[in-house]
Specification:
The protein is mostly helical and about 325 residues long. It has a single domain, classed as Orthogonal Bundle (ABC transporter involved in vitamin B12 uptake, BtuC), CATH 1.10.3470.10. Helices cover about 75% and strands about 0% of the residues. It contains 13 helices and no strands. The longest helix is centred in the first third of the chain and has 36 residues, at about 45-80.
């Protein structure tokens, strides 16, 4: 019996290592492709122009796509696990709605792009803090259900405020900028903005990595988690805070790009299983590769650049249904 368990365990480890290697190789190949493909295609023979374009234009955008995709995938993996719901995405607690409200306010005040990102980041964090504060004070209800429902309600309210502010915006100047931001884009990412967002995303990732084995306990009922030595309330707050920090940092520089945090964790779970320690790195690699592929397609498919938020929805819907069909038994 022990030999059989060891045999199947070895197969699972080999399968997981192969999935990681393939995802990493695919990501690296997409990075090279994204650096060479665009409105002005380059070849390795164009070294002077290649260096300038890579360092000043395409390089920051490629890094931003990988950062945003990995962050949203990691946050989606966290939320789906700790909230025990396969339909949860990083914006379930209102972070995207809060970030949108902050960005719209900054645009209405005609602030510079760096302040738009600061307002978006702060709005996302404040929205989740409000949701968690309200949800924790709804006594007599399941705490996870209260948190999710509060997130939906607050997110809807903030979305309505965003719609109201759009009607007050200047239709010739402010409204197009607001609409463009809400559709999501990586076109305007600069090295300075990336240098601010990357440390924030890493700061959110560190607790998730350090607590990767304890996060699995949050998938159990709270009573069972306590018997195993965990404080589910405090651990859940810390993990949600870390995932929210990563999401807010991503949304601040890219706008609202959906489906990554919902779709990618399911794909990673099919390959790595439910264990968070194995699921997190694979989901981040797949999320980075997915958004990088989408952004490259948006730049190269047509003469007019397509918004990644729209393309991820067009691609994500059939992919999600396909993954749903593959994993219907485990769901």
């Amino acid at each position: 019996m022990g030999a059989v368990v060891f045999f199947f365990g070895s197969i699972e480890r080999i399968r997981y290592a192969a999935a990681l290697a393939i995802a990493l190789a695919g990501l690296l190949a997409l990075v090279v492709l994204a650096l060479l493909v665009g409105r002005y295609p380059l070849s390795l023979s164009d070294l002077p122009m290649l260096k300038a374009v890579v360092l000043e234009i395409r390089g920051p955008r490629v890094l931003a796509a990988a950062l945003v995709g990995a962050s949203l995938a990691a946050a989606g993996t966290v939320y789906q696990g700790i909230l025990r719901n396969p339909l949860v995405s990083p914006d379930i607690l209102g972070v995207s709605s809060g970030a949108a409200l902050g960005a719209v306010l900054a645009m209405l005040l005609s602030l510079q792009i760096i302040f738009v990102q600061i307002f978006a980041f702060g709005g996302g964090l404040l929205a989740v803090a409000l949701v968690y504060w309200i949800g924790s004070r709804l006594r007599g209800h399941d705490p996870l259900l209260a948190l999710v429902l509060t997130g939906v309600v607050v997110g809807t309210l903030l979305g309505a405020v965003v719609s109201l502010l759009k009607t007050l915006a200047d239709p010739l100047g402010q409204l197009p900028a607001i609409t463009f931001w809400l559709l999501g884009s990586l076109a305007s990412v600069a090295p300075r903005e990336l240098a601010v967002a990357a440390p924030l995303a890493v700061a959110g990732l560190i607790p998730l990595v350090l607590l990767r084995w304890r996060v699995n306990l949050l998938t159990l009922p709270d009573d069972e988690a306590r018997t195993l030595g965990a404080d589910p309330g405090r651990l859940r707050l810390l993990v949600i805070g870390a995932a929210t920090l990563m999401t807010a940092a991503a949304v601040a520089i890219s706008g609202i790009i959906g489906w990554i945090g919902l779709l990618v964790p399911h794909a990673a779970r099919l390959l790595a299983g439910p264990g968070f320690g194995r699921l997190l790195p694979l989901a981040m690699l797949l999320g980075a590769a997915f958004l990088l592929a989408v952004d490259t397609l948006c730049r190269a498919a047509t003469a007019v650049e397509l918004p990644p938020g729209v393309v991820t929805a067009l691609i994500g819907t059939p992919l999600f249904l396909w993954l749903f069909a593959l994993s219907r038994r485990s769901w």
